[in-house]
């Protein structure tokens, strides 16, 4: 199953936005670790070769160098695949960037299972847990290209470290590109159930919500692009007003947004929460969209989980 | 070698370094923990940098043109704090707050608590990377800043150290000077017994560093090497400074056990007596 509707590349959106930001800010510099074609930082590198450093395959030290550049007052972007940016480089991100409060924006492409054919080594499903655990780190997961453009601009304008997770696959355009750090846009209003969706799964959340609407069910959809800081008021309002929450994320259910939503609601507005995401396993090679189905994020599974919550609320038989 | 440092300058630096060592022992004694061995071995290098080489250093923090000192071996924090205190940036009395709750003087140097620290370090192999970033930044901005990264020898076992060194060589950062505190010992014993880093000078040369080998306790050699590095315009300089771990305190010298433990009162008294400050042990 492929993604429906008009799709666009988040990576292209990132690369193009970087060029625009670089034209406006002569102090902005960009680093990459030998994946600049894939991450699209090469677009910046072609336009501003003096401010582009392809440091080779050294992700931890790329992060330390980025921090050193940032401490002089620059805005610095550093990119790689998420498994390297968040995983390989974790302690450099922790100490050189987060602990130093360095103004570095890590834009990690190839997050999640949708990496596809490269397999489990490269499918990073723990990055959001690692990054949102770092004090002071802003964590953003755009659902589509318009939000990617807005999010890259937003983190550039915001002082301090940030982590933006992008998807390798082109994704359907599901937002109007309205993005604000700390806000969860309501893409569908609803009162029977809320789906909190992250990144690539926002499109599936909308499909399921629209399907359920045809049988008279009212499902709210929140785009949880801003994972940290997250929109606690919108989340708790959803818990109060819709009584149940289904979380969809292409990430380990152990440490991702599902865990965040469950803990936040249970402390404040306890309602049933179900988590759809990657179980406690590594991925494998395969067609990206087939992998989502295989690892428990199929539309059918999402609909079933939604149905269970609606049944628990007495909305369906 | 070029010009020789004057005897007066060297005598003055020796006196300052002795004060730095005294303050280091006092601070670690009161803290009850810390890293005396590697602090004492690097004390002369830090003294030379702070009191002579840095044209506009940590006291001039808002000045973007200042030179940067990055203590990649962040566990030598007490020596840096002591040098800053002797140099006048922080009160000497504050040294006795080392490692205590609420102190600016964290166990490993922290730029967010103490503005004279250029980069927070502690996990090894990262300060050198940050120093490379700072040197790139200065070159890009056409600023005259020079960046001095002080490394431990155990740190040379860490892969990211070599990643960063490779980048410094690749970018021909002539405003970068790497000072290696080659005291020969790490936490568990001699570097060469645990994971040998020799031939370290040849390795640094192979990584495109103008590499100098000196006695890291001889101020004449330290100043000459720093002057040589300043003249060298074709790339970064590495100074392999052969040092003695625990230098200046006889019972700490060359003893791995003094890598990471504090002296008790009797040991502190003995150490301070050897360092020319008998009877000056603060209460703890």
Keywords:
heterodimer; A: 317 residues; alpha/beta; Rossmann fold; seven-stranded mixed sheet; five-stranded mixed sheet; 14 strands; 42% helix; B: 284 residues; 7 strands; 12% strand
What distance lies between the first and last C-alpha atoms of chain A, to the nearest angstrom? 29 Å
* CATH level-3 fold name of chain B: Rossmann fold
Strand arrangement, major sheet of chain B: 1-2-3-7-6
What is the CATH-assigned architecture of chain B? Answer: 3-Layer(aba) Sandwich
SS-derived structural category of chain B: alpha/beta
Strand runs of chain A, count: 14
- Count the E strands of chain B: 7
Biggest beta sheet summary of chain B: 5 strands, parallel
CATH fold category name of the largest domain in chain A: Rossmann fold
Strand order across the biggest sheet of chain A? 3-2-4-5-7-6-12
Broad structural category of chain A:
alpha/beta
Instruction: Round the Cα radius of gyration of chain B to an integer and report it.
Output: 17 Å
Strand content of chain B: 5-15%
Number of self-contained structural domains of chain B: 1
Number of helices, counting only DSSP H or I runs of 4 residues or more of chain A: 13
Helix-strand pattern of chain A: EHEHHEHEHHEHEHEEEEHEEHEHEHH
- The CATH architecture of the largest domain in chain A can be given as 3-Layer(aba) Sandwich
Identify the CATH homologous superfamily of chain B: Thiamin diphosphate (ThDP)-binding fold, Pyr/PP domains
CATH first level of the largest domain in chain A: Alpha Beta
CATH level 4 superfamily of the largest domain in chain A? Thiamin diphosphate (ThDP)-binding fold, Pyr/PP domains
């Amino acid at each position: 199953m492929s993604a429906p509707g008009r799709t666009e590349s988040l990576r292209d959106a990132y690369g193009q936005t970087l060029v625009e930001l670089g034209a406006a800010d002569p102090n902005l510099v960009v680093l990459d670790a030998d994946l600049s074609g894939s991450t699209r930082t090469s677009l910046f590198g072609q336009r501003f070769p003096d401010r582009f450093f392809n440091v080779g395959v050294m992700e931890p030290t790329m992060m330390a160098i980025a921090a050193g550049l940032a401490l002089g007052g620059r805005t610095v972007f550093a990119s790689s695949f998420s498994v390297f940016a968040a995983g390989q480089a974790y302690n450099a991100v922790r100490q050189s960037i987060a602990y130093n409060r360095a103004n570095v924006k890590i834009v990690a492409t190839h997050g999640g299972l949708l990496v596809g054919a490269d397999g489990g080594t490269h499918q990073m499903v723990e990055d959001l847990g690692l990054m949102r655990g770092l004090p002071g780190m802003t964590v953003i997961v755009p659902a589509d290209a318009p939000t990617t453009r807005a999010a890259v601009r937003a983190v550039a304008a915001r002082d301090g470290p940030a982590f933006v997770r992008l998807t390798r696959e082109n994704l359907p355009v599901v937002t109007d590109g309205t993005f604000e750090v700390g806000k969860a846009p309501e893409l569908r209003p609803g009162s029977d159930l809320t789906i909190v969706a992250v990144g690539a799964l926002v499109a599936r959340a909308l499909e399921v919500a629209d399907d359920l609407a045809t049988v008279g069910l009212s499902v709210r959809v929140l785009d949880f692009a801003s994972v940290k800081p997250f929109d606690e008021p919108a989340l708790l309002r959803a818990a109060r007003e819709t009584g149940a929450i289904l979380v969809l994320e292409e990430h380990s259910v152990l440490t991702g947004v599902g865990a965040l939503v469950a803990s936040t609601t249970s402390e404040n507005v306890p309602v049933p929460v179900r988590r759809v995401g990657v179980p406690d396993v590594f991925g494998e090679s395969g067609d990206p969209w087939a992998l989502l189905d295989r690892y428990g994020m199929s539309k059918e599974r999402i609909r079933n989980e939604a149905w269970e919550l609606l049944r628990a609320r007495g909305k369906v038989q | 070698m070029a010009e020789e440092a004057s005897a007066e300058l060297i005598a003055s630096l020796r006196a300052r370094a002795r004060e730095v060592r005294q303050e280091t022992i006092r601070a670690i004694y009161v803290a009850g923990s810390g890293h005396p061995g590697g602090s004492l071995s690097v004390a002369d290098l830090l003294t030379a940098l702070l009191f002579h080489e840095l044209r506009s250093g940590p006291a001039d923090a808002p000045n973007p043109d200042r030179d940067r000192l990055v203590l990649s071996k962040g566990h030598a924090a007490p020596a840096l704090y002591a040098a800053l205190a002797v140099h006048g940036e922080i009160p000497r009395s504050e040294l006795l707050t080392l490692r205590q709750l609420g102190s600016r003087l964290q166990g490993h140097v922290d730029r967010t608590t103490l503005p004279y620290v250029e980069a927070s370090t502690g996990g090894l192999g990262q300060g050198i990377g940050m120093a490379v970033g700072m040197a790139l930044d200065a070159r890009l901005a056409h600023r005259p800043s020079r960046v001095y990264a002080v490394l431990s020898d155990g740190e040379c076992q860490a892969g990211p150290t070599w990643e960063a060194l490779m980048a410094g060589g690749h970018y021909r950062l002539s405003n970068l000077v790497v000072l290696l505190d080659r005291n020969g010992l790490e936490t568990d014993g001699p570097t060469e017994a645990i994971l040998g880093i020799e031939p370290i000078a040849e390795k640094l040369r192979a990584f495109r560093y103008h590499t100098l080998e000196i006695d890291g306790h001889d101020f004449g050699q330290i100043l000459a090497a720093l002057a040589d590095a300043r003249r060298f315009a074709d790339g970064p300089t590495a100074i392999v400074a052969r040092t003695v771990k625990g230098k200046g305190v006889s019972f700490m010298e060359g003893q791995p056990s003094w890598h990471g433990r504090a002296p008790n009162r009797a040991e502190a008294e003995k150490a301070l007596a050897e360092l020319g400050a008998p009877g000056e042990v603060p209460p703890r």
